[in-house]
Design a protein that fits this description.
InterPro entries: Acyl_CoA_acyltransferase, GNAT_dom. With 168 residues, the chain is α+β, with helices and mostly antiparallel strands. The chain has helices spanning 11-20, 24-34, 95-109, 126-135, 154-165; strands at 2-5, 44-49, 52-63, 78-86, 114-117, 139-140, 150-153. It has one domain: 3-Layer(aba) Sandwich (Aminopeptidase). The protein has 5 helices and 7 strands; from the N terminus they run E-H-H-E-E-E-H-E-H-E-E-H. The longest helix has 15 residues, at 95-109.
């Protein structure tokens, strides 16, 4: 498995992954880009095996959070994972963890001190997603809703993900 920045040749498969997750608008953005439309607005990375896209992560490195999840002990910039998705046949094989680590490493290079994201709550699988993100080191940031926004200081997250993946 190789992790790298996404390229236009990946967009069709990325769209298929997103459509399969029920993210129709995001899928359409990549499909449209694959058909010659404008590039997607956020940077993304993919896990590939040969020419096959196994999963993707998309986010930004200049986020400021609203008051309910503000992280005053961590200077800006902060990173926000907009979405992460893995093909069903590639799940539970380390692809999602590798993508999360890839994003965290990119966030570190961008000078971020904190990473946050909001698990997709559109279906009953939210509990599985929350369990995955917690196993990767992301913790709930809103005490009243353990399924809401999750995050972690970037240095702690990278240490945890490196331990999980067994690679320095």
């Amino acid at each position: 498995m190789l992790l790298r920045r996404s390229k236009p040749g990946d967009y069709r498969q990325m769209a298929d992954i997103l459509y399969g997750m029920g993210h129709d608008q995001e899928g359409w953005d990549y499909q449209y880009a694959a058909e010659g439309g404008p590039e997607p607005s956020l940077p993304s990375w993919v896990a590939v095996d040969g020419d096959e896209v196994l999963g993707l992560v998309e986010g930004r490195f200049d986020s400021t959070y609203d008051e309910r999840i503000e992280q005053p002990g961590h200077p800006l910039p902060h990173a926000w994972i907009y979405l992460i998705g893995v093909r069903p046949d590639a799940q539970r094989k380390g692809v999602g963890t590798a993508l999360l680590r890839c994003f965290a490493e990119q966030a570190a290079m961008a000078g971020c001190s904190f990473v946050a994201m909001s698990p997709d709550q559109s279906d009953g699988d939210v509990f599985k997603r929350v369990a995955f993100f917690r196993s990767c080191g992301l913790m709930p940031l809103v005490d009243s809703d353990p399924e809401d926004v999750h995050g972690a200081p970037l240095a702690e997250l990278l240490t945890h993900l490196r331990e999980l993946t067994g690679k320095g």
